Protein: Prepilin-type N-terminal cleavage/methylation domain-containing protein
Organism: Alkalihalobacterium chitinilyticum
Amino acid sequence: MKALIQKRLKNQKGLTLIELLVVIVILGIIAAIAIPSLMDNRTNAVKEANAQTNKIVQDAHDRYFAITGSYAADATALKNANYLREIPKCANGATKTFTVDANGMLVADNKCGNTD
């Protein structure tokens, strides 16, 4: 039996052109499906990171109001009062600034591109 297997393996010369083309086509199909999916994942991750930044600042803003009875003027005031460890940044690294409007609502002064 071992001799038969060795003989078959010895007679194989390599891949045929058709086999090679089939493999290339399959890899192309996989790439066509995977690349857009990966790009969507990155875009969604950036959007979620920016949304999470907004939630963190909103939570700090609410805690500041609950304890002091007034609203912080901006994210810097929240940091100075130790409600934020650092000034929040967008997923792209740009500093995100916040202020409080006349109703005491937190407003983002700058957007993080089109993913805010």
Observations:
- DSSP finds three helices and two strands in the chain.
- Residues 20-115 form one domain.
- The longest helix spans residues 17-68.
